[in-house]
Amino acid sequence: MSENGIYQSNHVMRFTERKWYECIKEYSKRFIEEAAHFIPFTGTLWGFAYILTEAMDSKTSIGSLALPVIITALLAVLYKAWLKFKSYTPEALQDENETTRNIYRKRKCGWPFALAEQMLANRIENIDLTLNRIKKGAEFIEPKYVTADEYYNWLKLRPAALKQLVRATMIQCTDEIPALLSDLDESEAELKELKIRLTALVQLYEHTMRYETECYQIVPQEPYIDLHKMTFGWTEPIQRGIYEFMGILHSLSTIDRKLLEAGKVQPPNFKITVQVPENISEFCRILDDITSSQT
Questions:
Q1: 5 CB neighbour count, 10 Å cutoff
Q2: Which end of the chain, N or C, is less packed with Cβ atoms under 10 Å?
Q3: Each residue of 68-80: pLDDT tens digit?
Q4: Where do the structural domains in the chain lie, given as residue ranges?
Q5: What is the CATH number of domain 6-17+107-294?
Q6: For 122, left (φ over 0), alpha (ψ -120 to 50), or beta?
Q7: How would you class 114 by CB atoms within 10 Å of its CB: exposed for 0-12, middle for 13-18, buried for 19 or more?
Q8: 112-138 confidence digits (pLDDT tens)
């Protein structure tokens, strides 16, 4: 953990958005893919028109229907290409929800940050709910008994484990993920890399949940019962840090492009302050006193 609890990194952010000519280019690709269906569509419609005119004993020449048939077939191809264009999702995002996929499809200014925020929110929602239930006592946690030596070693390592967990989480939030987002493009490779880095952060958040769970799971022993209670809620700074990180992503995703280009707004830095629990120093002192009195 940094000495003052501040984690910060500076990255030059690139703000991109989907241009109109890129939309035309992408639609053209979908149209070319669907163009192969033009002849089958035309043949089917022509056959239908022929059967219809014969059945109705119409005086209308079948030849006069050629143009309407061709136009209808062309419109069908254009429509199918449009549907494909509007629903296209890269392979890396196929398993994401519709909200996430729509962020990619629209690709408005700041879309990489909106994408990361939504993907992270989807992944940590259940962890957040579980953490909050644990702290409220609304989550059943089966008690676990350990030996006296195991308990003492577990208790002694709580502050060091917390500091490592905070440091790893905040490095992900202020360095690893921002470094990728600063110049993220829509390629499959970079989208997959984003998923990998977000997964790493989520895994750290899962460790945070397990860290908090252990406080309620492991049965305290004498003479450490009051000391044990001091460890409850030590994961709160990590939760706040994650929320702060998501707030920065949201600010970057909603930045006004015109104001940005005019120099009237500045993108926020990835700066997160995470203070260790206030009672952690007292915890270490009391533990040392108990240890000294027993030797």
A1: 15
A2: C
A3: 778 887 888 888 8
A4: 6-17+107-294, 21-91
A5: 1.20.1420
A6: alpha
A7: buried
A8: 999 999 999 999 999 999 999 998 889
